[in-house]
Amino acid sequence: MEVNVNCYYKSLMMLIFQTSPRGLFLSTNVVVAFNPDFLTKNDRVFKVQCFYMEMERRIQKEIQISMPPPTMHAKQLNMPVCKYEVLDGSPTGPPVYFATVGQMVYHKWTCDTEHENTFCMLVHSCFVDDGNGQRVQLLNEKGCALDKYLLTNLEYPTDLMAGREAHVYKYADRDNMYFDCQISITVKEPGLDYCDVPSCPDPPRRRRSNIEVENATALALAQVDYEDSEVSSDYIMPDEAIISLNWLQRNFDMRITELCMTPIGTTLLIFLNSFLFIISLVSILHVCCFRTSPKLENMKSTAL
Fold first, then answer.
1. Which of 97, 98, 129, 138 has its CB 3.0 to 4.6 Å from that of 178, i.e. a possible disulfide?
2. Tens digit of pLDDT for each residue in 35-90?
3. R_g of the chain, CA atoms, integer Å
4. How far apart are CA 124 and CA 197, in angstroms?
5. If DSSP codes are grouped into helix, strand and coil, which group holds residue 247?
6. Of 212, 128, 216, 131, whose CA–CA distance to 174 is shortest?
7. If 0-12 CB within 10 Å is exposed, 13-18 middle and 19+ buried, where does residue 254 land?
8. Nearest-angstrom CA–CA distance, 268 and 264
9. Membrane spanning segments where (predicted)?
10. What is the model's pLDDT at position 139?
11. Using CA atoms, how far apart are residues 163 and 109, in angstroms rounded to an integer?
12. Full strand arrangement of the beta sheet holding 8-19
């Protein structure tokens, strides 16, 4: 006898995530029934679980990376050769060697170099000297002018050129004037189109004196003051602006500047000259004494 059994099943699926070990649980209950309406003793319930483990594998490899050694590029740069000129009226005028009070001249500082767009220059610490121990400062250590009637702030048309026009002036009782300026050369920063120039305020005007021209003992400017109602004025330097030099500074420091030598080199040169002078003097005295001694002996023998 054959019995036909019809099976009916129901299932409910659940998903569970697990971290240890990492994976996914798939769980479901399967109910096998022999009757669609009633539960009998022959019915069965099966719980089915499936675990899918998550595979995790870390792969690492240590790689040591070192930078290549820097390449040294050595290049000898010749320093620029600088000069100072006093030109007639403009930067392109002829040189001036003799001038009259009130004449318009152009003070020009230039430096020549073989390497373009490499150096920057700064003119600073300028003094004017009468050659007899009195000097007045025109530019300070930053390159800024101190008196607009003597020399105003310089202009820098190029990286290695500076200049400014000014009227000729002189010491009241001196015919010659000596300008002493310093030029600083620096390497231009890469990527800059122009060199940095000093940012200076407008220089003031030193105080004015009412002393007559024949009694003036400082600088007298022959420049017309158009701002005042006076036709012409004499500008007298204040006493605190005049620096007096002693005998050593007049005869030693200025010689160092003219010879372009350091103090040590100048001292060695003076010592060497003194030593040669003493040796020469001793040699002359020795020769003279040596020549006179035979004559004395001859005179003694003749007398005997």
1. 129
2. 777 778 778 888 888 888 877 778 888 888 888 888 887 777 788 999 999 999 88
3. 50
4. 11
5. helix
6. 131
7. middle
8. 6
9. 268-290
10. 93
11. 6
12. 8-19, 22-33, 44-53
Lowest-pLDDT range of 89-93, 114-118, 228-232: 228-232
Phi, psi of 113 (to 5 degrees): -145, 155
Sequence length of the chain is 304
CA atoms within 13 A on the CB side of 143: 18
- The single-letter code of the amino acid at 88 is D
Least Cα distance to 124 among 147, 151, 142, 145 occurs for: 142
Residue 2: phi and psi, rounded to 5, are -105, 135
pTM: 0.48
| Per-residue model confidence (pLDDT) at position 160 | 92
Pairing of strands 134-139, 242-244: antiparallel
Q: What is the structure's pLDDT at 277? A: 87
Residue type for 241, please? Answer: A
| Listed residue (129, 155, 269) closest to 137, CA to CA | 129
Instruction: List 219's β-bridge partners, or say none.
Output: 171
pLDDT of residue 237: 52
* Side chain identity at residue 71, one-letter code: T
Return the number of other C-beta atoms located less than 10 Å from residue 29's C-beta. Answer: 14
Comparing 113-122, 164-173, 212-221, the range with the smallest average pLDDT is 212-221
- Rounded to the nearest 5°, which phi and psi values hold at 215? -100, 5
Tracing tokens 């100048």 back to the chain, one arrives at 266
